[in-house]
Amino acid sequence: MWRIGCHGYYSLLIVVLHVIVLRGSASVQIATANYSRDDFPPAPHFVFGAGTSAYQVEGAAFEDGRTPSIWDTFAHSGRFGDNNNGDIACDMYHKYKEDVQLMVDTGLEAFRFSISWSRVIPNGRGPVNPKGVQYYNSLINELIRHGIQPHVTLFHYDVPQELEDEYGGWLGRKIVKDFTAFADVCFREFGDRVSYWSTMNEANVFVMGGYDLGIFPPGRCSAPFGSNCTGGSSATEPYIATHNILLAHASTARLYKEKYQAKQHGLIGLDILTYGLVPLTNSTEDVKAAERVHDFFHGWFLNPLVFGDYPESMKKIAGSRLPSFTPHQSKLLKGSCDFFGLNHYRTMYIKDDPDSLKTNQRDYLGDMAAKMLSKQGHVPSGQFPIDPAGLQIVLEHLKEVYSNPPVFIYENGQMTYHNTSLDASLNDTSRVEYMEAFMGGLLEAMKNGSNAKGYFVWSFMDLFELFDGLKSTFGLYYVDFNDPDLNRYAKFSAHWYSSFLRGRTINQYLQDH
Ligand SMILES: *[C@@H]1O[C@H](CO)[C@@H](O)[C@H](O)[C@H]1NC(C)=O
Ligand SMILES: *[C@@H]1O[C@H](CO)[C@@H](O)[C@H](O)[C@H]1NC(C)=O
Ligand SMILES: *[C@@H]1O[C@H](CO)[C@@H](O)[C@H](O)[C@H]1NC(C)=O
Ligand SMILES: *[C@@H]1O[C@H](CO)[C@@H](O)[C@H](O)[C@H]1NC(C)=O
Ligand SMILES: *[C@@H]1O[C@H](CO)[C@@H](O)[C@H](O)[C@H]1NC(C)=O
Ligand SMILES: *[C@@H]1O[C@H](CO)[C@@H](O)[C@H](O)[C@H]1NC(C)=O
């Protein structure tokens, strides 16, 4: 087993135990073109935004009737250290007006956020909490009033703890009905103003981190595939949870299309994390391994949603551990996404690993029979290498294999460590370099026919991160977590993005500053 980097963890996407950092220089491809906002289609046909999610920014964890989710429980288990949880986070629950004003100042055209299930329906099922509904109505109205398009995620890692305790959350088939009922409330209350709905955020990473490696909520896994497991089976639960997530998505999408779409004119999709997948060598084995990793990592969701069934390679390797769809379920799934959300950060180099299939005791990652390797390139340890070609590979693949569905790049951005020096934190040149390269790569892919409809920076502000809480940051805005007022400060990246959104070329701002 390989460990990665010198920090033990590396990115939200990492497959912690399987990533090797390749030494040497990766070719860092920076878009050289001096492009501007005008090179992309105008809003609302294509929008530039930024994102957050409920638990990561709202705080007010125990206020106005909200009950805990599995993320509260996970964060409170102490794994990120004392007081490193989302109880207060950025306190956006109270500061949303100020934050929308910052979005206006930045020139954001769209804002992506999620709705906390246990705030709207405490305990997950039953009566609706008027104060929860009121918060999201206020936020949505504030966005609309300023011409910022809301993009809403229904599930962002936060199953109500009550449902986790009752039937195991996504492991229980009952969640299909409960999730659909929650979505129904959201469509009914907010759908007159919200046109872009994602059922799930980064569904593939949620099940891998939450049920195979045990590093994300609900922290389930089994030895030797994870440590600190709260119970579970890395061999079967990732597949079971995914199956129920897909069925809940299909049920929700059908509800939206039958009951709301004709009058609300919105769209519904699902979001996954994507990697640019490149065979490490041109050997037949590595090329096939890269296809297999694509099937397991992307196709696990894309194939059922586009074609109605799991990829053949998964059925063959996972066998009876992979649940199957009835013809009725398959029909409901097929074509249930009006668009896909893609969270994209990095490229992985794939090396065939046939030995992993020699044991019957395999987890989901072992079933892939491949190692995912990352190249560090010319960026400091702890930051993501800059490889926009990986995004182009993903978009090209969606175009060729999945009939070019509309896609939103719902997350992309650079990680840096939280630095108590304000000056150091605000001077985030590496974030600008990263965004500039990926936005340029996206433009190239669109010129080549990709059906991309938007680009959202992760994240709008520093927030409670998935894998280490407040220690690493992706924000355009710095949040001073040591200040009781949690003041926000625009980083260099916020100024640069703002200049781009106001029509200046990517290089103009840099030349002037
Ligand atoms: C397991 O938990 C302990 C104590 O919370 C922590 O120090 C350790 O890093 C955890 N291990 C992993 C792999 O998360
Ligand atoms: C694989 O082949 C392609 C096309 O011939 C070439 O561009 C690429 O550099 C090769 N990759 C490796 C790792 O040898
Ligand atoms: C914070 O920034 C200073 C100044 O650039 C740097 O020397 C220090 O290593 C940074 N700390 C962290 C934790 O990145
Ligand atoms: C910001 O960082 C860049 C490179 O990391 C450095 O060249 C520049 O001098 C810094 N600017 C300020 C104002 O510290
Ligand atoms: C651009 O699109 C064409 C036709 O679909 C395809 O053959 C080609 O590989 C694409 N180029 C890139 C860089 O993806
Ligand atoms: C980019 O374009 C702007 C506006 O056309 C111009 O002012 C600037 O000098 C250009 N920068 C580079 C590096 O080409």
UniProtKB/TrEMBL annotation:
GO MF term list = beta-glucosidase activity
Q: Which PROSITE patterns match?
A: GLYCOSYL_HYDROL_F1_2
Q: Which UniProt keywords apply?
A: Glycoprotein, Hydrolase, Signal
- Signal keyword on record: yes
> Which Pfam family is an annotated match for this chain, by its short name?
Glyco_hydro_1
| Signal sequence interval, chain numbering | 1-27
- Gene3D superfamilies for the chain: Glycosidases
Q: Which GO terms describe its biological process?
A: carbohydrate metabolic process
Q: Does the record bear DNA-binding in its keywords?
A: no
Give the highest taxon in the source lineage.
Eukaryota
> Which family would the database say this protein is a member of?
Belongs to the glycosyl hydrolase 1 family.
PANTHER family recorded:
BETA-GLUCOSIDASE 11, GLYCOSYL HYDROLASE
Q: What is the protein named?
A: Uncharacterized protein
